[in-house]
Amino acid sequence: xxxxxxxxxxxxxxxxxxxxxxxxxxxxxxxxxxxxxxxxxxxxxxxxxxxxxxxxxxxxxxxxxxxxxxxxxxxxxxxxxxxxxxxx
Length: 88
Fold this sequence. Notes:
The protein is 74% helix and 0% strand. It contains five helices and no strands. It has helices at residues 4-11, 15-25, 29-39, 45-62, 66-82. The protein is globular, with a radius of gyration of 13 Å. 23% of the residues are buried. The model has no long low-confidence stretch (mean pLDDT 94).
């Protein structure tokens, strides 16, 4: 039986990135892993994930959730380091 960690490792994204995707899409973390993995196999999937992460950060900025903005900026920057073709 596959564990959450197994699925996360297969997807190749960090748990924080999956958490943000799950929150944005209003789905479970496991569904977010599947969704992210499917996106990563498309031509513009890396950018779509970047857009999701940036959207969550902009939403937190608009709501003036300073602590959450800092966290989301860290998550986005980590993603951009590993996916340099993307732009936020």
